[in-house]
Amino acid sequence: MALTLERMRADVAAKIHEEPEAVGDHENLMDLGLDSMRLMELTLLWREAGTAAGFAEFAEKSTLAEWWALVQARPKAA
């Protein structure tokens, strides 16, 4: 399944036990309860979906909007 902003939102929401609607584009995801272990799991999941962005790049950002911009800016993984 292709990685989309809505898929990322749903994946994050599942990791923090919230509904996708609770995850705003510009909210600090760490403030919502996302920790580094869950982020690592998300990164692996998203790499399987084709993104070339890695854990360190995601860890430098704190919002879904920033993560989506990162995914769009990076070429797809082979």
**Given this structure, which CATH class is correct?**
Mainly Alpha
Estimated structural class: mainly alpha
Proportion of residues in extended strands = under 5%
**How many structural domains are formed by the residues?**
1
- N-to-C series of helices and strands: HHHH
> What is the CATH homology-level superfamily?
ACP-like
State the total count of DSSP E strands. Answer: 0
Reported by name, the CATH topology is Non-ribosomal Peptide Synthetase Peptidyl Carrier Protein, Chain A
Can you walk me through this structure?
- Helices cover 50% and strands 0% of the residues.
- The chain is mostly helical and 78 residues long.
- The protein has one domain: Orthogonal Bundle (Non-ribosomal Peptide Synthetase Peptidyl Carrier Protein, Chain A).
- Helix 1 (5-15) runs antiparallel to helix 2 (36-48).
